[in-house]
Design brief:
The chain is α+β, with helices and mostly antiparallel strands. It is about 40% helix and about 15% strand. The protein has one domain: NADH Oxidase (3-Layer(aba) Sandwich), CATH 3.40.109.10. Strands 1-2-4-3 form a 4-stranded antiparallel sheet. Helix 2 runs antiparallel to helix 5 and helix 3 packs antiparallel against helix 4. The longest helix has 22 residues. The chain is globular and about 55 Å long.
Length: about 180
C-alpha cells in the first residue's frame, strides 16, 4: 500500500552504504518514476545527471577543492566528507532544474515539480530496498564549473543512492491535527 511506503521512506546517508552496485535497470526505473511527477503547464523541468564509478570520484575531488577555495576556514572533516561521500554511493544523481525560458510558470513551481520528481525517486528507492538521501550543499552554485548546463538549467542538489545493511530507525511525527486548520 502506498501509505506504508510513504511512512517507510527515510534518509539513508552514504556512511551506511554497502559496496553492492546498483544495476542500471534499477536506476532507469527510479528515473522513470521521477518522470511521472506533476508539473504545471507540462514544463517537465527536472533534469538528472547520473554519476557512477570514476565520475563520482571526480565530483568528490571537485567539491572538496572548491570548498577549500571558497571557505576562508575550511574544516578537515568537511573536506574529507566532500571528497569521500560521492564515491561511497552506488550511484549519485545530480538533481537539476531546467527553467522554462519563456517563464510561463513561476520558478518556484518548477522547483516544486523537480522536488516532486525526487520524491517519486525516493519512494521508488524505498520500494527497491535502496537507501537514498538528497543533499543540497552550498557548493551547488558552482556546479556549472563541473557540468555542462543548458541555458536556464541549474543544480538543486545531489541524490545519493546505495544499498545498506543497517536497520532504519522508527520515525514519529507530530499529529497532523497540530498542523491543520479546518475552515467551515
Amino acid at each position: 500500500m502506498i501509505f506504508d511506503l510513504i511512512k517507510k521512506r527515510r534518509s539513508v546517508f552514504p556512511s551506511s552504504y554497502s559496496d553492492k552496485p546498483i544495476a542500471k535497470a534499477d536506476i532507469d526505473q527510479i528515473l522513470d518514476a521521477a518522470n511521472w511527477a506533476p508539473n504545471h503547464k507540462k514544463t517537465e523541468p527536472w533534469r538528472f545527471k547520473v554519476l557512477q564509478g570514476p565520475s563520482q570520484e571526480k565530483l568528490g575531488k571537485f567539491l572538496s577543492a572548491k570548498y577549500q577555495e571558497v571557505d576562508p576556514k575550511p574544516k578537515q572533516i568537511k573536506i574529507r566528507k566532500l571528497l569521500e561521500n560521492p564515491a561511497k554511493a552506488g550511484a549519485l544523481i545530480a538533481i537539476c532544474m531546467q527553467r522554462d525560458l519563456t517563464e510561463s510558470v513561476p520558478e518556484w513551481e518548477e522547483v516544486a515539480a523537480t522536488a516532486m520528481a525526487v520524491q517519486n525517486m525516493w519512494l521508488c528507492c524505498t520500494e527497491l530496498g535502496i537507501g537514498s538521501y538528497w543533499s543540497s550543499p552550498g557548493l551547488i552554485k558552482y556546479m556549472d564549473e563541473f557540468f555542462d548546463f543548458e541555458e536556464g538549467e541549474k543544480c538543486l542538489g545531489f541524490f545519493y543512492m546505495g544499498y545498506y545493511d543497517a536497520e532504519l530507525p522508527e520515525v514519529t511525527r507530530r499529529p497532523i491535527a497540530d498542523k491543520v486548520v479546518w475552515i467551515d
